Structure formats: C-alpha cells, structure tokens
Give the backbone structure.
Amino acid sequence: MNELIWVTGAGGPIGNYLVQTAPRYASQRRLIGLTRTQLALTAFNAVRAQSRAHKPQLIVHCAALSRSPACQENPSLARKLNVEATARLAELAADIPFIFFSSDLVFDGRQGDYDESARPNPLSVYAETKIAAEQFVLANPKHTVVRLSLNGGASPTGDRGFNEEMRRAWQAGKTLHLFVDEFRCPMPAMATARAIWELVGQCKPGLYHLAGSQRLSRWQMGQLIAARWPQLNPRLEPVSRKDYSGPPRPADSSLNCAKVQRLLSFPLPGLGEWLTANRDEPF
C-alpha cells in the first residue's frame, strides 16, 4: 500500500504514540510526524506547499493550543491555531480521510455521560474553538471528528500529558489542589493511538467519542498518579468547585463511548485498571 500519513502535533502524547505505534498498527503505510518546529500550521502557504510535495493520503490532526487558560488569555491565537489551521488542513484534505481531535469540554458538564447526539454547550474559549473546528471538519463526509477526554502518557518534552504536569509539580515541591466534584474519563494516550489506528483501518468517518471507561474526579486521578510516583513524596489536597472563582469549568464532561467501542477489537480501559496492568509503562 505504502500510503503516506501526516500526523500533526507529534510532540504531544497522542501524536507521539501514533508515531511510535505506526510500525505495529499501520505497517503498510509511511508516516511523517510533524511538530511545530518542523512545520508551523499557521504558515498556510508553507503547509500548502508541503502538502503538494508530500501528497499525504491521510491527515491525523493532533496539533492544537490545548491548554484552556492559554486560550482564555489569547482568544485570537486560539482561534488561529485551533480553528483556522484546522479549516485550512481540512480544505487540503478535501479528497482524502482527515481525522480531527476535539474535546469532552465542548459540553457544559451539567449532565455527564454524553453521547454523540448530545448538544454541545461550550463554557470556555478553548471549547468554542473546538466546536467551530468540528463544523468545518464534519462538513466533509470523508472526515472524522474524535472527541477525547484527558490523555496521559509520555511526550517528547515531558510536559504535555496531564500526568506529566502533575509529576513536574511534585518534583518542584508543590501541593496540588484537586477537585473532588469535577469528573472526566481519562485515557492512556497509548490506548487512544491504538483505537485511532483501528478506526483508520475501518474507514468509517463521522463523529465519535473516545475516552477511558472510568469516570474519575480530578482528586481520584491525582491519587492514581501519586501512587505511581511515591518517591516524589507527592502532595495533594482535595478541594471543591464550589470554592473555585476562575473561568467556568464543566462539572461532569464524562463521555459515552458505546458507538466507537462497537468498532474496536479491545475494551477501552479505565485509567486505574490500565495503570495496574501496565506498571512498567512510562506514565
């Protein structure tokens, strides 16, 4: 086959694992993992030139301004990176499969267990940009949007996964204050990569929710990660969203992943069970 795949955002956990696992799950294809230093996606003329030169047959778009506080502070940059760059890539991929990663944060968190038919109601600039980008992508019936929850694992720079952020805080001697009443479905990026490769192989475009099978509070996540790193003497304290005064945050953005689960050859893991079963994996 020898088709060429572009993976943007190869410096993040998901992009990193997609690149690492390609020899196992996409061995008949060539892959180019793109980081922002290799190709700035906002340099649209350069992106177009590289697309014409490489002629990818699939684009998996992981790159984003993904930290919500950064998006709140600079909405114009968030829109340029998350919406405009995505729209331009989707246009370049008009005749080929294109996979875009969105977020569970497109929901307001009042309900939880959201499936693909649930109506989004974004509370943050980051979530607004993801919804806007989704609309561009799904306008093409060949294209796919995958809404994810938190993803953890190893990134090349060591600071992109939520687990890495926690570990770096503990290494710096900080105490993490974690909500007991904010819930998501965290997922090992390694499992996310495997699921994406299986979706690629099935060629069934559309909208999917892809997350861990375990609904966890921030506090519960912290406890699981702390147990992984006892040598850091991790310090964490439980707090409530009731005492939080920052920008709005969804209380429960847990995802119902039954649709994608029916297509996969393996059960989506909960974070706790995955950590227990994969004690030697970096996390």
In short: The longest helix spans residues 75-92. The chain has one domain: 3-160+187-214+256-270. The longest strand covers residues 3-8.
